[in-house]
Amino acid sequence: MQVDIDMGTTSTGDVAKLDIEELLATRLLVQGNSGSGKSHLLRRLLEQSAKWVQQVVIDPEGDFVTLSDAFGHIVVDAERSEGELIGIANRIRQHRVSCVLTLEGLELEDQMRAAATFLNALFDADRDYWYPVLTVVDEAQMFAPTAGGDVIEEVRRQSLGAMTNLMCRGRKRGLAGVIATQRLAKLAKNVAAEASNFLMGRTFLDIDMARAADLLGMDRRQAEQFRDLKRGNFVALGPAMSRRPQKVTIGPVETSARSSSPKLMPLPDKPEDVEDLIFTPDPEDLARQATAPRRVTPRPRPTVEIIDQLSKSSETSEVHEPRGPRVAVMSDEEKADWIAMTLSEITGNPDSAFRSDSELYQDFLMRGRMKRISGAPLSMSAFRRRLAIARSGADAAMVESEAWQMALTLLDHVTDDLQGVFLMLVKAALAGEPCPSDPMIARAYGTHSTRRARRFLDWFEEQGLVVLHTEPGGKRIVAFPDLDRQTEGGDPDAPVETVERRDAAE
């Protein structure tokens, strides 16, 4: 069923129609500097489509809670436990209720955690509840940043992963991402690139205009028009609105935000006794207790820095007070051997699959300090890559092969959390082994859910990294077009213990 909603008027005076059914399949990106009218555009979209499709709004400033009075949206305060947010998100999908998740009042890291938890719960809903949901995320650069900024890496990865799921893998689960951002340059490229519809508003910075022009297929000279757009005017492009770039003026809205842009108003007449009025203390001033100055909690120092400082202090004291024999400094070759051995020990522990990468990294650093290795033997990103390789089970000869090196280049298109799963499949293909079963894939990711394992394979196929096909007997094969290799047929339901016994027997 085709449903066209009225977004306003085009430059030719026609009605600017937006096909909701097409939008659900192709997603939308809205970009514009502060004051360009992004929130007004989102409100128009939500109001016009409220009676046609379920809506979920991730609202950092609490601007969209006013939708509840006019359109019946449930307002969910994000200041709850993780379990409560997951339960609410599940019931939201089950009962098909539109809602606004308000993050107002939370610190940035808490906002990112709450949004990620809520979006992941929507994404992980049971297949029976995969109804269409228009999922709107305002200020998307906060939740899918290109760099870590002032937040810890674990929070950034969690939030970015949730946004990536929404925009890259949410379509089959009924989640249609609509993201709005002030700065395209600050929004992760893999999130922005998944949108097929664009509404570009007023933009002044060259880097943002260049990104916008690139997404819309314009040259640099055409991109200059973004600077001249008035408030509430956007350039639209995409299958849901227009096959060619056209200017759109967004129409009026029924509701309004609780806060609005300040308006100029004349100052009152200055009283004659203004100094007495300002400096004469009020009785409440004298009765009011002085509040303590706000204490700023310092950010925790990285563990690597603390360990290095302790090491240097220990080494300095040992110059004056020898406490025992010193350990010889490792050569580069010895350090490389130690890293390989340590990673093998860590991945050899069955519980390591269910521990976070940051937790395993701290374990790795502590083992290094026990060997008196100064500093971090590997950065966090390098550790993740080496950990993924170690978990894949590839031997030294395979790792040095040309096909394996080609596979490593494909990791640029795989999120950090799925690199271990991807390399495990590559290893099976290069070794001519049966395709890993769903329980094996789930364990490699660190989950017990075989349903999520099947989703990972679907996502790899959506990205064009693999091709899945099933043999007549029901065995699954994963083929890699870029490597010209494929796995043998494997039982997708085989338990891990059965596979391990088979490998041991061989």
Automatic annotation (TrEMBL):
PANTHER family: HELICASE MJ1565-RELATED (PTHR42957). Keywords: ATP-binding, Nucleotide-binding. Residues 16-76 form the Helicase HerA central domain. Residues 249-269, 481-506 are annotated as: Disordered. GO terms for molecular function: ATP binding. Pfam families: DUF87 (PF01935). This is ATP-binding protein. The lineage of its organism: Bacteria, Pseudomonadati, Pseudomonadota, Alphaproteobacteria, Hyphomicrobiales. SUPFAM superfamilies: P-loop containing nucleoside triphosphate hydrolases. It comes from Martelella endophytica.
